[in-house]
Amino acid sequence: MTSQSLFLDKIKQSLCPPGNGVFTVNTAKERKEQLHQALYGQTDNIESIWSDSLNNLPDSSAAVILGIASDCGGGILRGANWGPLFVRSTLLNQHSGLNVFDMGDVRVIPHLLHDKYLNEPTIANCRKALYQDKDSDLAVSPLTITEDVLHDFYAEFPNKGIFGIGGDHSISYPLTKTYLQAKKKQGKRAAIIHFDAHTDLLIERLGIDLCFGSWCTHILDDLHEKNHLIQIGIRSSGKPKEHWESTFGVKQHWAHEIRENGVAPIIANILSQLKEQAIDELYVSFDIDAIDEAYASATGTPEPDGLTPVEAMDILKALAEQYPITGADMMEIAPFTDSSGRGASSSETTLKVGGEISAFLLNEMAKN
User: Which family does the record claim for this protein (predicted)?
Assistant: First the structure.
């Protein structure tokens, strides 16, 4: 078998049809069927139709969607595991005509995070559940499956990019790690543009080193320079900006700076840095809580005094005019979570904002 055939065989085992990453029997059945009807024109035999569709991946768009329906790496309000299903539906309903290929969802055992936290008997038991083979060599935890699949993805398709839909922000660890390592092999200098209310620069959280609050820390060595992690929208932190920049070497633009000075100086500063450091390509990791809670409250940690959707899009458009965006993700949309008291409108508003940003990023990725 060719390496491409081996890769396609791997993803047919490690992944599942779009929207099926949350394992349920009856819950949300209608929502999943609506997505499958929109994607495939039917609701029966979806596993087989999806599996056959993967054979079209080699000749598909440069923008490839991967859902990772896990919130095991979160820790405040849960529910971001439903993000991949709902964001896809929003894109299909409100942004039809996108030139993208949907590779499906990672198969998620909801109690697991990363294989390194598991003992061998547990891994064997999970392999039996996922793959009907306890002696399989495939990964079983969402972060590990994502990393394993994407290392091979970039080796086979160096000119394609992944748009990851989460899920909690721990998922960006394997998404960005594999991206950065692939770009280094290609001889390209890439920067991570990270929109978030929080720094995600903890060393660990309650003894766990890979989680929604620490993933950035563990990709710093994969960057050419640590300040190629550029964070935008920070405002919820127990320590000042100077601590994070001096301790970790990253570059930050806090939300209050944008409120006080507007987006133009921030854009100019970022573009100047990217030019000075000879950056070739960008990856955008977008935590929806970078957006002010008035526009995006259906998330685990909504925060006030954040970016407006217009400000976020102004920054993204300015960056995209100068640099190719070749990878991206949308994280922490939790459609059933409502901390605002606005009921269903909270989810609808959040998904509308997240869908607009996601559609823009996918369109930019498809150009490359």
Answer: Belongs to the arginase family.
CATH superfamily assigned to domain 3-366: Ureohydrolase domain (3.40.800.10)
Cis peptide bond upstream of 167, omega within 30: yes
Token pair of 146, please? Answer: 């994502």
Token pair listed for 314: 């102004």
Distance separating alpha carbons of residues 331 and 127, to the nearest angstrom: 27
pLDDT in tens, 250-281: 999 999 999 999 999 999 999 999 999 999 99
User: Token pair of 42, please?
Assistant: 């039917």
Nearest Cα neighbor of 368 from 190, 196, 216, 222 is 190
User: Helix, strand or coil for residue 291?
Assistant: strand
Nearest to 361 by CA among 310, 306, 324: 324
Q: Tell me if residue 78 falls in helix, strand or coil.
A: coil
Whole-angstrom Cα distance, residue 140 to residue 136? 10
Fill in the DSSP letter of residue 80.
G
Q: For the packed helices 344-366 and 309-322, what is the interaxial angle rounded to 10 degrees?
A: 10
User: Is 205 within 8 Å of 75 (Cβ atoms)?
Assistant: yes
**How far apart are the C-alpha atoms of 264 and 283, rounded to whole Å?**
21
Question: In DSSP terms, which residues pair with 195 in a beta bridge?
Answer: 232, 286
Contact between 155 and 145 (Cβ < 8 Å): no
Structure token pair of residue 9: 């065989």
Instruction: Please tell me the distance from the alpha carbon of residue 287 to that of residue 268, in angstroms, as a whole number.
Output: 22
pTM over 0.85, yes/no: yes
Contact in structure between 67 and 84 (CB atoms under 8 Å): yes
Distance CA 296, CA 358 (A): 14
Q: How far apart are CA 203 and CA 198, in angstroms?
A: 14
Residue 157 tokens, joined: 């398709």
pLDDT for 221 beyond 80:
yes
Q: Give burial (CB, 10 Å; 0-12/13-18/19+) of 249.
A: middle
